[in-house]
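Just curious. Invent one:
>
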Amino acid sequence: MKRGKKQNPENLTNGQAAAIELIAKSNPRLYRAYLLKEKLRLLFHHSFYGAKAELEGWISWARRCRIPPFVELQKKTGRHFDAILSTIKHGLSNARIEAVNNKIKLTVRMGYGFRNIDNLIALVMLRCSDVNLMLPGRA
């Protein structure tokens, strides 16, 4: 498998699928970790009630798996159980907020050296708004 490139199991190449099969045979603990990760990833593709049953099953499996990072993760998941289900029920995420934060950070880097903080704030407000300014001489 290529390093650094994440792929869903349904998008694996034949070589990557063969590598997963090899891992399943040669390192059962690593393969179990892979299956736990995939089951948790697929949780967000279920309806609310299906997700609730799947999450309960995942927590139970992770509790018994004897892989310390997953045992710790299931504890955190259990503490945030209702919030996770609420996210699935309402289809909300913090992706938009993260995108706006990233845009603000980039704008602040671009505005490095502004002597007046009000100008920097105005630039951030302009970049994060839906206003599309047409500057003279630019198409």
User: Anything to note?
Assistant: Residues 95-127 form one domain.
